Amino acid sequence: MKVHFPFDNSYTALPAHFFARVAPTPVQAPRLIKLNTVLAEQLGLDPDWLASAEGVEVLAGKRVPDGADPIAMAYAGHQFGHFVAQLGDGRAILLGEVIDRNGIRRDVQLKGSGPTPFSRRGDGRAALGPVLREYIVSEAMYALGIPTTRSLAAVTSGEQVQRETMLPGAVLTRVASSHIRVGTFQFFAARQDIDALKHLADHVINRHYPDLAKAEHPYRALLDAVITRQAELVARWLHVGFIHGVMNTDNCSIAGETIDYGPCAFMDEYNPATVYSSIDEMGRYAYANQPRIALWNLTRFAETLLPLIDSDEKAAIDIAQNSLGAFTDIFNDAYQSGLRKKIGLFTAQPDDDALVQDLLALMTANQADFTNTFRRLGTAAVDPEDDGDVRAEFTDPAAFDGWAVQWRQRLSRESQDGATRAKAMNAVNPAFIPRNHRIEAAIQAALANDFAPFEELVSVLAKPYEDQPQMAEYGSPPAPDERVLRTFCGT
Ligand code: AMP
Ligand code: MG
Questions:
Q1: The pTM is what?
Q2: What is the pLDDT of residue 431?
Q3: Ligand 1: does its nearest atom lie under 6 Å from the Cβ of 86?
Q4: Would you tell me which of 28, 76, 301, 366 could form a disulfide with 187, CB atoms 3.0–4.6 Å apart?
Q5: Active site includes 123?
Q6: For residue 279, which ligand has an atom nearest its CA?
């Protein structure tokens, strides 16, 4: 028999209490909604086979492919600041790992494939809406160039799931560098299982940070490396107006990828206090809080590593605090350097941050669309006569003019011409983001069995930095009656 998934599993070689072996629960009548053929090829999988009846059964959890060793991973986590000692994959099953075309080990996981020993009161299933949402947003993040888990496929199960109403069930095939989270470390730390922590840390170093194995203090170096990746990741989110929505420690990837797309959203008008998630009543995970929360999560991560960092607890705490102390500078460097590029600067000057923050404050006061203001600033960089479009983003267009004087003075201190600058700006300021109202419209159409809007949205978002004039409407913010003010995790 032909092996369709060249699995090479490493997590299942870890101690038995790291996971629970569990097979997906077969579903009635799986049907393929979407196959990511480009990703399939990157993974060394055969897209034609994946789209075949047999392949779709695998993607739906109805058939377990040869070489798979399906497991649900154990983890804990702080949810909205409250520690839960056992969470784990309640509706996700890791089929196994494959080595992709670039030699990178990737997890292939089914999400919504039935209950596991970690399901608690959940049904282990996923509804169509959240599956499409994760597909759209994760693939958009990838196209934007931001580290993220990917979506290989979405299938409907032919079964209904009970949420507030009955909804069509679906399964997402998620691909990740790994599904190891801060919460995975917390699971063992909470049980004072130092031996397991060491196994896990060694696995993570070997898999995600192989250079650190040679470091004088590998576990300290691991903490530093995870801090750096998370700080840079959150800076990237802020550059595109992304709000994760549930930055619990169990949704914080050790590999530094964006993971667990639930009530996440991109903002339209720029406002740092923006929150969409219906469950985030206190705004803990608001747009501008994300760096602070990342540091909070990393502090929980550091706590789990203390016994590995130094046998003397006080010494270990000092070392960890020193590492965590670097977060703010790493984040600020990444955040500010990205913002400088967004306004077209090639060099760094001491007043640049103030210049960008002035623009952001004016955008908030004038309800300017975050994405379109920066995209149109690229046009204005070529010729001041072309300020019209960007000015129109501000309720009081004159507010832009005052800022533009300062901006052009600053630009005049660099030698690049306008066209070069605009090109560089268009490579970092997307024309298209997954706007909430578009996602919602695609989901509503899919629920009525029309997948064309979903397909079109996914295809526009695959090239977010290209103008795509025929698709210009996808760049428009919502009309007042299209605005989506709340998003739901829908689990
Ligand atoms: P999330 O909000 O997706 O990060 O999930 C938090 C926890 O709840 C994780 O342990 C999930 O596996 C679990 N969970 C979420 N939805 C379900 C469901 N429908 N059935 C079982 N477990 C679930
Ligand atoms: Mg989660």
A1: 0.98
A2: 98
A3: no
A4: 76
A5: no
A6: 1
